[in-house]
Amino acid sequence: MGRSSILRRQWRNRWKKNALSAFSLQSVRDGVLQPVDHFYFQSVITISILLNTILLGVEVDNDLGSAGVALQWFLTCVWVFEAVAKIWTYGPKKYFCSAWELIDFVLAVCAIM
């Protein structure tokens, strides 16, 4: 058995191990954890909240028609995506134990209704 066959076998075993761990739920959660807690992700959510606040204020006096409805649905999709990403990242138990996350979830569900 030559050195090249030993290296080939070691590489194959390492590849199999890495390939299997790449598809495990924990590794997917670890990969998602950083983007959910990232400054840009949080900034997009904050901007969408501010945009929705402005939209609600404008709709009190003006009818925005189909553009307003489309923007409302877009913002609702952003919040649902945030909730799903955080539930996936933190796990349901940790997500629903946080009061702020629970409020976000209830508001996202209310926006859908």
Report on this model:
The protein has 113 residues and is mainly α. Helices cover 89% and strands 0% of the residues. It has six helices and no strands. It has helices spanning 3-22, 25-36, 39-61, 65-90, 92-97, 99-112. Helix 2 (25-36) crosses helix 4 (65-90). The radius of gyration is 22 Å and the shape is elongated. The N and C termini lie far apart (67 Å). The model has no long low-confidence stretch (mean pLDDT 80).
Summarize the model shown.
This protein has 113 residues and is mostly helical.
Question: Mind sketching the topology for me?
Answer:
Blueprint: H1 3-22, H2 25-36, H3 39-61, H4 65-90, H5 92-97, H6 99-112
Helix pairs in contact: 2-4, 3-4, 4-6
Which range does the strand content fall in? under 5%
* Main β-sheet description: none
The total strand number stands at 0
Number of helices: 6
Distance between the termini: 67 Å
The arrangement of helices and strands along the chain is: HHHHHH
User: Rg, please?
Assistant: 22 Å
Average pLDDT score? 80
- Derived structural class: mainly alpha
Shape: elongated
Q: Which stretches are poorly predicted, pLDDT < 50 over at least 5 residues? A: none
Tell me roughly what share of residues is in helical segments. over 70%
